[in-house]
Amino acid sequence: MALTDQQCSFFHDHGYLHVPAVFAGELEELSSDLDALMDTWAERTKGWTGAWRGAYMDAETERRSELVALHDLQLYSAAWARAVVHRPLVETLAQLLQSPVELHHTTMHVKPPETGHPFPMHQDYPFYPHTTGAYIDVLVHLDDTCHENGEIRFLDGSHKLGPLEHIVADDHGTRTSPFLPVEQYRLEDTVPVPARRGDVVLFSILTVHGSYINTTDRYRRLVRMGYRSASNRQLSGQSFGRPGLMVQGLRARRPDDKPFPQSLFQTPTT
What we know:
The protein has one domain (5-232): Jelly Rolls. Helices cover 19% and strands 25% of the residues. It has helices at residues 5-14, 27-40, 52-56, 59-64, 78-83, 87-97; strands at residues 16-19, 43-45, 67-71, 101-111, 119-122, 135-141, 153-154, 167-169, 175-179, 191-192, 200-204, 209-211, 220-229, 246-248. The strands form 3 sheets. Strands 1, 2, 3, 4, 6, 11, 13 and 14 form an 8-stranded antiparallel β-sheet that branches. A hairpin with a 5-residue loop joins β8 and β9 (175-179). The relative contact order is 0.23.
């Protein structure tokens, strides 16, 4: 599935791109497996911590707010293992990255009905920083999204600002989830990108984004799949230290590279 020159330019200029109907025949199985993983493996938590919660929710909503999440769905579901190598998707990513493409991770992001967790303004960079911006997050939509259920929203062109300093601790020094100052970075200033079931929304690891709470009586189900140029080295954070799955092209070998050990905890032998 080749992008047009206009689509490529839009992504590089604005930091995000909505691509309709990337997934179609696979949707029923992906949706069914996601529901099963929600019931059997996913964690239901209060979600992200930090002072931003008081700015986004009143006290009662904050008390009830919940997030359903699970990392690396491809390790639990054959359908999602096939989804990460979906040919039209990975060809699109290779076109934008202009390099071989490596899967970094997948993460379930499900907002339960009525009080489904909002997300403060942030970049994904602090969660898994890399040496370059050659990293694209992909939101696979299992449900239609809109303002009422908390569609993704972007600060247009913000990827050009580079990595931003996030708040990572409260006034007492306790670590929180990274977020940007709520007075300076406001959801009201963002561009909403509603999408349909089967659509994907791509965005740079450096694009500032967030979302409102789900106020509807239904789940809002998304899966984030992160991909990078195979030459883009990770510095720390989520999934740090493990090799990613090559989904397009061939991994190049640098002079200091050795074959991957059979175990992440095994020292390579010479």
